[in-house]
Design a protein that fits this description.
- With about 475 residues, the chain is α/β, with parallel strands linked by helices.
- The protein has 13 helices and 25 strands.
- A hairpin with a 2-residue loop joins β3 (about 130-135) and β4.
- α2 runs antiparallel to α3.
Amino acid sequence: MSSDQDQLKETDTEARFEFKKEEKSAFETDKGLTEETVRLISEDKDEPEWMLERRLRALAQFQEMPMPTDWPGQPDLSEVDLNEIVPYIRPDIETRGGAENWEDLPEEIQDTFDKLGIPEAEKNALSGVGAQYESEIVYQNMQERWEEKGVIFMDMDKAVQEHPDLVKEHFMTKCVPPSDNKFAALHGAIWSGGSFVYVPEDTTVDMPVQAYFRMNSEGMGQFEHTLIVAEENSEVHYIEGCSAPKYSAFNLHSGCVEVFVRDNAHVQYSTVQNWSKNTYNLNTKRAIVEEEGTMEWVSGSMGSKATMLYPATILKGPGATDNHITIAFAGEGQNIDTGAKVYHNAPDTKSTIESKSISKDGGRTNYRGLVHISDGAENSSTSVECDALMFDNESTSDTMPYMEIQENKVDVAHEATVGKIGDEDVFYLQSRGLDDDDAKQMIVAGFIEPITEELPIEYAVELNRLIELEMEGSLG
């Protein structure tokens, strides 16, 4: 690769993923997590009393729970000092709940999302676009034809005000209660922003709905909440992107995703995350699938200092289906601990898990999964496939599958492979005219193809590009 090409890529990387803007906020809380902080967040949002009560209950649960420390090989969370995190920053925009027109945003926020490609994504005929900057949605739009069919796509804060019955029924009750884990409880206390998607019965949203979350401030936490309800015989594809610039102080991302898939509905949730190397990404994502419903998770985890993320699906109804396709990439100083959880609680349910991981320069990737098949879930089937690719002897990759099978009439399969990039493969591609770097990048592109082919073309290109940038300077 020429020096001019190297310089172009370095410039592109800085422009797209490492840029940062001067902080301009209308309101922000002090560091730390107290009851006063929770009340200030709720007051600033003018929330109903029932939401404040839920926040305070979650805070009490959070304070009683210990930090997770006893999982073999889990990322080190000792640096996560919540007393040093600013949990809530409202950006300086005139329209609370997000501007409807792109031009109404402040110039510095427009510039940030222009660099990330948000306006271009909307021009590519996505059904709806939402953009979150710091703790709040700053831009939200939905194509009129979907609004006319009763589809709702808005930020969660606005949904609390305009659709209280729907939110009250689903928000951190049946799917992800605050008692689930310490970071779910933290999220329940100080959540802010995120997306609310509601698809009525017999409605197919045939183009993706997209949201993008951006942390710009140093030492902040982002706690967006995504709630998706797909009624009977409906279909929707939701795409999420995340990023943050690099700072010396750590940032914390602890979002929550709840998905309700009704009878014969179909939801695909795709995410491409490129957090900076100082971010701790500690999310909780879960779906409940009713009879003959289908849930699909497609995710790419780049960046972050440490990630602990295990999307879970509860197959509640007979004939429900769940599919997971994930990729993790860990470089120097990174510990990417990801996986999937599936609970087969009804007969004739099916699940597939396909996990791909890449590690280099001493990075660590880990697949941590759980498949549970309950007594009575007869004729259920599951297939788990984990593949790991390492660039060097300093990097590590582990597979920790856990299966709880309580029913005899089931079909269970598991396969795991770990290997290094083969010299023979590189030599073959070099004999076809590729140099060493391009040969290895082509091997990696083929390795992750099962994921990229499940994404819209612009996201597949972006995922390949992110991995290429991550690999830069480490090959050979």
